[in-house]
Every structure is written in structure tokens, then in C-alpha cells.
Design goal:
180 residues; alpha/beta; UDP N-Acetylglucosamine Acyltransferase, domain 1; seven-stranded mixed β-sheet; five-stranded parallel β-sheet; 2 helices
Length: 180
């Protein structure tokens, strides 16, 4: 589980910036163009950069990760091609959850009430057995409860409850998710 504190006025250290440059180079040559079935290899590369990655995790080659050291992927979860894990803050994805293609998981925003629009980062927690369908957008600071389904192209601006099918812009709970 991740710390849910908000960090306002983030400024990234030289170490952080150098780490991201090195990550982008490694990502380009050893991650993005790795063959699709090489999930084990991509798990290894993410772990080398500080990501906490469980067993059986499937991260596809065209996934974008901003800072792997802010990423925690629990066992058997999957992240589809074109997903963007914009991990300026911590992102946790629970066991057996699926993040479909094109999903944006964004932990950073800006405080528009202050001059200079300082960066604000808020962690995102996605529970176990969750499906976030394609092209959804998850705002900073969101918690999605276990077993929830987030519909395609939804914009999640509030926490979503466990075991509910949720969709829309803004995303809202629609009905209970019942396994058959």
C-alpha cells in the first residue's frame, strides 16, 4: 500500500532528473521494442529501475512509464500497449487488475490558484481485480476499490467504490458488479 499524502510544490532533484534520462534511454533500447511475449524481460527492466513488480505481471512494450521507482504492480496484473503510467507520484496497481490500452494514469497536476502553477502530485491506488477499460483517464489522488470496472473513455475525478461498474465523464457508479 502506498502513502496517500499529497506533495505540493514538487521539484525534482538532480538525481531524479538524471535517473529519468537514463530510464528513457534504457526504455527506448531495451523496453519499447522488446518482443510482445517478453513480459519477464520487461519486469526485469522495471525492477532494475526500482519498480516493485509482482509475479506474472504483464506489461506490454508500448507502455509509457515516467518514473519506474514510483510504480508498484501486484501479482498477475496487466498493463496494455499505449497505457501511460505518469508516475510523478506513486502508482499502485493491485493483484489481477487490468489496465487496458490507452489508459492514462496521471499522478501530477498543477495548482492553478498560485502563480507559476506549481506541481502537485497525488498517489493513485487501483485495487485488486479491477478493470480499467481503454482510453480512461484517472486523475491524481484517486482510489479505485477492489473489483471495480471503469468503462472505456471514462474520466475518473472521484474515488470509485469496490465491486461497481462505473463509467462516464465524470465517471460515476452505475451498477453493482456481480460475478457469474
Amino acid at each position: 500500500m502506498i502513502n496517500t499524502d499529497t506533495y505540493t510544490g514538487a521539484s525534482f532533484s538532480l538525481k531524479n532528473r538524471i535517473g529519468r534520462v537514463i530510464w528513457q534511454i534504457v526504455c527506448l533500447f531495451f523496453f519499447k521494442y522488446s518482443p510482445r511475449p517478453f513480459h519477464g524481460w520487461r519486469r526485469f527492466v522495471l525492477r532494475c529501475f526500482g519498480a516493485k513488480v509482482g509475479v506474472g505481471v504483464h506489461v506490454y512494450p508500448k507502455v509509457m512509464v515516467w518514473a519506474p521507482w514510483n510504480l508498484e504492480l501486484d501479482d498477475y496484473c496487466g498493463v496494455g500497449n499505449g497505457a501511460n503510467l505518469y508516475s510523478q507520484g506513486k502508482i499502485y496497481i493491485g493483484k489481477k487488475s487490468v489496465i487496458s490500452q490507452g489508459v492514462q494514469v496521471c499522478t501530477g497536476t498543477h495548482d492553478f490558484t498560485l502563480n507559476g502553477f506549481p506541481l502537485v502530485t497525488k498517489p493513485i491506488f487501483i485495487g485488486a481485480d479491477v478493470w480499467v477499460a481503454s482510453d480512461a483517464f484517472i486523475h491524481p489522488g484517486i482510489t479505485i476499490g477492489d473489483g471495480a470496472v471503469i468503462g472505456a473513455r471514462s474520466v475518473v475525478i472521484k474515488d470509485m467504490p469496490a465491486w461497481m461498474v462505473c463509467a462516464g465523464h465524470p465517471c460515476k457508479p452505475i451498477k453493482e458488479r456481480i460475478l457469474g
